[in-house]
């Protein structure tokens, strides 16, 4: 928990059934592809988009006599992730075989860590708005191999199998059933993705399937969840159904909403929810049954005879811990405490690691956190969003934006001129300091010149002078006229002072 950002838990989502109110209970299993160039047990490439079956080693294709060799880097990435989630690291873990038949699994089993995972219990703080957050407990993280991909839409009579993904390292991150609504579930996946990207252990690309979630949904009567929390007895909760392979925040929310209403309708009609695995159809906006929910014994789990238990040293874990980057919660806290930003602005700036890096580069050169935040969020992010770009394709780099902010701070340019300057830099590029010199954009701070302009406006508008003396608020009209007459270059602060002085206000 952050030492200065206090928060309270959001209210659980309540759905009104025909007979009573119902609450939701949600847990997620997120499969995150480890950011590694090689697979978990082979040296084959993990590059996305390669020709089908071109990134396949003999062991991936289950050729006779081929044995798996664990990739140390993948283990380090799992440990790094565990440390990022404030989780326990198990110095001894072990791999099991999960046996099932499918054409995209040439071995006939998946090597996984069901019983002895590498990472134990941790937690994530899921922000739902300023002062509102949900603490979600992580049950475990285990390493496992991904399966291949079956392709059914290339031929009307045949299916094809691509083994490129077979053996790619996955981290399965399992949460406790602490999430209480569809928005929270999407926010949890978003926060987890953010942390993984800061750590560099998964790129979080949901489109490519590098991050996907299985969502467990059940319903209960109001008050039942509190009883579960007191006792940790699952009998207080309803039967859960698992929705497989969700790779979109929007679809996660839609699927949970539909599934909850489906379960409510069944229970209120006197039926029983069957524990099963379901799929979400985004075109129809509904979940459908995929298969009955298997138990561990259905997969005939047993220790993998080809791999010894994985034993790691605490000193190695400590070394990984020493190289950890600043994580989003800590960064957000620092922005609030040290730079004086609002919690909202700090959240926006830390949402993506690239955004935070850019902002910090601007602050380092401009030296004003609040002003930098204002320009980065409102001017730059606003413009990039309008044009559907992200920070990586920004035409204005951190040094250029910092130069604009320095010019504002030194009173060389006004806020209005700064916006014109930003537009020039955004569309044409160039050095902001040279641009203001060459194009005569430096604001007039010469009080003599400003005084002359004020005298001129006052002399030409005697009626307005009388009105301003009766109502000092109308002095702003003179300020506007003087700035207009100077082509927007007059220093507004100096103009305000001289107008007030001349009018005797």
From the structure above, extract its key features.
nine-stranded mixed β-sheet, 19% strand, 16 strands, 505 residues, 3 domains, Arc Repressor Mutant, subunit A
Record field, number of beta strands: 16
**Alpha carbon gap, first and last residue:** 52 Å
- How much helix, percentage-wise, in residues? 25-40%
SS summary, helix count = 16
What value does the Rg take, in angstroms?
Answer: 30 Å
Question: Could you say which structural class the secondary elements and strand pairing correspond to?
Answer: alpha+beta
- Provide the residue-averaged pLDDT: 91
Share of β-strand residues: 15-25%
Described by strand count, sense and barrel closure, the largest sheet is: 9 strands, mixed
Shape assignment: elongated
Domain count: 3
Low-confidence stretches: none
